[in-house]
Every structure is written in C-alpha cells, then in structure tokens.
Task: inverse folding
C-alpha cells in the first residue's frame, strides 16, 4: 500500500541568470531583469515528495522529522541566505534557474534517500512561478 | 532532462450555469444557485503547466516572461472582467462550468505553444473547487 | 479584559460599477473594465471583527458558532451567487464597489449585534484589493 | 474528454501516534512528541479528487454540491472535533498517522462514489506536512 | 520613528472547552462539539507583534532572530504537541479558548520583552477563526 | 464616511544587512547570515493602505487602478529585480532592513498621494517576518 508524503521548507537566496558564453546584449535580451549584474533574490518555497510503502508498524511512509532534518542539513544549510552564483559550488558552471536549482536539490537528496523511495521536487521561485522535477505530465 | 514549469495567473468573470435544452425546473434542480438568471461571479486562479527539456543554454524549460505574456494576451484579455456567457464566443453553445472553461483555455493555449511541450491546466473557481485538464489520475 | 475575534467567510457574486447619472463615456473613463454592461464577478472573502470583554464563564468574547451562523443568514444568503446590482435591493441606488459593499454589510450586522461589541469589516474583492470599514488608521 | 475535479474541506481533530505492541521507550524514540499520552491535534485540510468524463449536458465531471455534501456526511461528521484514537472506530487497531487517515478516508469514499470515477486523497496535517493516497509518482 | 514588527509561528495542540462549574447539559449546550470529553485539536498560527523605535545602528525594531527564539523557547516548547487542558498548568483553572490562550501567551511574553516595546498577539485557531489581544478596535 | 483600501503588490530583490561603521566581527554577531557579503534575497509582499472618505459619485476611496499603477511606477520599477544596497540610492547610507525599506516606501508614496489620505505600509520580507510603518499599536 503505497502513499506519497510531502514536506515543505523554505530558503532565501540571491541569484543572477547569466550565460558567460554569451555577449552582454544576448544575456540582456534573453534574461532581461534577471540578468542584473548585482543580483536579485527570492524566498524559495520547496516541496520534497517521497513515495513508498506505508510501514504497518509506524503508519509512516517516511519519518517526517527525519525528512525535515535532512532538508535542513542538506538544502537549507547550503542555500539559505546565500548567493547561489557565488556561494554554492553547484552553480559555478550551471545557471541557477529554478529548473536547475530543482535538479541540483534532487541530485543531493537522491543520494541521501534510500532508492526504494521515489523522489520528486517542486520549487516555487515566486508565488506565481514554479518548477517540478522530474517532469509531471 | 525534462521538467515541468507552472505559471499562475488570475481573472475575474461573471457566469451562469444553464442548459438551454432543459426546462427552468430542471435547470434549477441541477444547477441550483449557479443557475441565477442574473449571473454570479468568481476570481478564477489559473495554473498553466508546460513540460519539456531543460535548455542547457538558458536553464529554462520555457521563458516564463513569454508564458506570462501569452496567458495575458490569450486568456486574461479574453476572460478578465467579462461575462463568460455573453462576452466570450466560446461559450455560446457551451456551459461555462469550470471543467469547460479549462478545456477552452487548453485548446486556446495548445495552438500557441509548440507541440514539443506537454500542456495542462489547473483552474480554481473558488478556494475550495478546482479542475485539472487533461485529467490527472 | 477586552479582545477582538475575527470570523472569515466567503461569497461569490457578480457586479458592475456604473453611475447612472453619468454618460457612458464618463463611466468608461472612470470605471474601465469594471463598467462592463454584462457584469463580471468575484469571490469575496469577508472578515467580521467583534471586540468586547472576554466572558470568564465561557472564555469567549462572542460565540463563534453564533457569529458564523449570523453571517450565513444575514450576509451569505443575501449576497452569495447573486448579481449585486440586480438581486440585492441595497444596491438599487448605490454603486456596489467594495467600499459600499463593506458599508452595507456593516449596517446589516450592526443591527444584529449587541451595541456593547465594537464591529468592523474587512472585505477582499480580489487577492490584491481589500477594504476596511470603518477606516483603520 | 476526461478531467479531474478537486474539492477541499476541513476538520479539526486530536490524535496520538502510539504502537501498543511496543514499549514506551520505543514509542518515545520513534514518535517523539507525537506520542504524548494526552494527545495533541491538528486542523486537517483535505482535498478529494475525482476523475471522469465531462458530461456534455451539465459541463460537470461530478456535481460539486453533491461531492461537498458527501464529504460533509461521510468524513467531517465522523472526524471533525473528534479524538481519532478514541472516537473513530477505524483507528482502534490502526495508528492515526496522516498516511493511515488518508487510506481510511479513501476507503470510505470509494464505497460511496461510482466506480467509473477515479478517486484520490490529499491530506495536509500541518501547513508543511502532507500525504497523497494512492501514491502519485 | 516607530514601526511594528510581526513574527509568525506555529504550534499543534489538543484542547477541550468545558466549564467545571456547569452541568454536562449546559456545557454541551454552550460548547457543543468543542466540549468533546476526549478532546479535539488545532494547528494554531500565532502572530506576535512588537512596536518600538527603529534603531538607527541596526535598522531593527527588534532582532527577529531573538524574537523567533523567544517564541520558540517560551511558547512552542510549552504548547506544541501538548494537551492544553492536561499538560499546560496555565489552563488548570482557565478554559483554553482561543481568547484565553492569547491572554496567556501575552502574559508570558510581556514578562520577557522590555517594557519599551508595545506587544500584541494574534492567534488563528482555524483558517476562519482568530483572536487579537489586546483588543484592536 | 471613511474607509481604508489596501492594495497588495510584489517585488523580488537582493540585499545585505551591514553597518559600515562596525567591525566585521560585530556585523557578523548582530546580523549573522543576513550579513553575507555576497547578498541574499527575498520575494517582498507589499501592502499599501490609504484611508479617506468614500466618494459618493464613484463608491471609491481611491481608484485602485491608479494606486496599482502608482505602486508599479514608483516602487516596483525602483526595487524589483534589484540589489537594494547597490542599485537603490536610498540605501547608500541606510541599512536595507525591512523596517527601513518600509520607511523609504512610505516616504516615496507620501509625496505622490494627496495629504487628505492617511497612508500606511505593511511589508512581508518572508512568510513569517513582517513590518508595519507607521507603527500600529
């Protein structure tokens, strides 16, 4: 009997969308305000979803205290109150778009969560813009 | 590497649920308050989801500025501050239920968004009632 | 020992902003899209606040079940799934702006709530537009 | 032409997570604060999703007034303002974790909703913790 | 130059509304479902507001990290995952209505926050019911 | 007959809390993570409240389309997708705390809004931290 559990968390970060292989003109044309050389920022709202069997001994798919703690240690500590471009090594060669941030979060958590659990990420960059990874059709 | 991106937007409209082939009694029985001949209205909250490959050059599945603008031009301009039954030709012969509004929005946007992107619609008619189209099992 | 209690409720209605003493041009200039002759509509979110002494016997300022029922009988029954301009007599000679709707709600409830309780109204017409009556500086 | 419709509702309940086959030490270790012998409680936010064909006569997948009433009769009446462990027979031998509450709600509603409709449950136990049943990968 | 700062926090608790000086009939008549002898519960959302001068050296009215920590130590530790009637001594002789919980929280924090800061409490017991203490007219 | 009207809007920005007159140690001690030299950021949610007489000709305290446009021109254009410390001259000698941002927004809008209207600002820096200016006791 499988169910999915979702844990929401939160981090605040600065970023800039900029492709170093492009001219400034092309960056401005593609990324517009998001290309501001001095950075801007967001309150990111993160949802981490795990899917697995409900353990009949606990009634849990996964202990939410452990999941909350895992997100705190692996994601919030790394991203919260940071400049994603400058402070987070994952984005040295990767544009910190919401899509790429979601992939990075997925890859970090995938290594920490047992493979019997399916994992997916939903990341709200603003109250109106959101990414799901892997894709949900 | 596929991800989904979601853009939320908003429009306010009046509507009435009424089947012209039915008697007034049957309309009242089926649609109740929603059959009010003078209309009532809602703040519709719309989520448009696109699924596709993350472009390694931009980190984007789809440029959210373009998606926001497309929704503004094609949906908000057509539906916002309108009477769906009287002002929107799509509903001349179609009851503007939340289900049918979702289908109409899907059909409009499907023609404007390249076929390589999967498209789906989520429409909140009130904070408690919502439709997803196509169906999500 | 005084406290304030707030009860939220909800109604959906159609309306039109239109001043019958003005020309169509002036109505269009002042009210724009809100002047649509066919109406548009909103999900109104209402907050009713009462202030009074905490009753030591009950721990209540006011029984919230009674307040919820009063709002249901006096406000929701009158406004929900209605066309404010056509179906609600209070707006025969009064433009149903969010400000005036708030005044009408206040006047209705003021007659039903004992004078020892201070009363105020907060009405969200959209998630971004709201009115408080009486004024809160 | 299939769509999904979602109805949100709400109930408040007390519960305790406790496995009677375990020692008090093990219960404390696994369930921590949730094992409080005197119970704690939550405002549960429930989303019920039905998937089916859009009826061309009504524009409905399912009459949302009927769905709201079904949830009220079958779920809210049974769970609202109750102690899940003591007042709800389903949890005599089942730990009332959010996962198990979701399964119980699903099983109750599955019997009341015609089999042509797919059914799923989403239950928020807190604003940060949520379950989906059946699992959504 | 004075400003107000607000910090939101959260706790989950069980409670029961019951006046020991009354008969069971009167308790049932006044408190209804809230009188359930086995308790029910809520996710309480708490807003603590402090008003004072903006310190020109820090730009702060009050260090929000300190305020968050104070709320955690003094309120969340005392109330979260507790039965308010049984586990919290403040409610031995006081009905744990939202009004009285607000007064208790105010009294606890008032002793910990310097008197130069004005203090007020807003407590949501459900998404639809809320108390402000002291009263806000 | 006076009422208050509230308009919500939104901007995203990077900032850093840092007092140039202090040592790095003192900055770190007081501002902690908020002192990150590379900046972090937020989705700021802004509420602008105007209080005045309800105009009997329009039913308006203030035309919300004009207020929305004023906020867009004067606040969003200046702050959105900016680094408050580097891109906004108001913060050259002023720490961009939420309190000081609120004062700056108030001062800008106060010059653009006729003196017959009372003005106040509410600014959410995160979903849990908020400022009101002028102070609301």
Result:
């Amino acid at each position: 009997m499988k169910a999915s559990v979702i844990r929401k968390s939160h981090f605040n970060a600065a970023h800039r969308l900029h492709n170093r292989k492009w001219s400034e003109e092309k960056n401005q044309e593609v990324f517009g305000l998001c290309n501001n050389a001095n950075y801007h920022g967001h309150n990111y709202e993160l949802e981490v979803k795990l899917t697995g069997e409900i353990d009949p001994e606990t009634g849990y798919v996964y202990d939410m205290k452990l999941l909350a703690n895992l997100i705190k240690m692996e994601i919030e500590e790394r991203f919260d109150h940071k400049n994603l471009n400058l402070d987070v090594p994952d984005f040295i060669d990767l544009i910190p778009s919401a899509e790429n941030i979601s992939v990075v979060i997925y890859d970090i958590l995938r290594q920490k969560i047992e493979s019997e659990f399916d994992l997916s990420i939903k990341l709200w960059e603003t109250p109106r813009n959101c990414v799901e990874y892997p894709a949900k059709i």
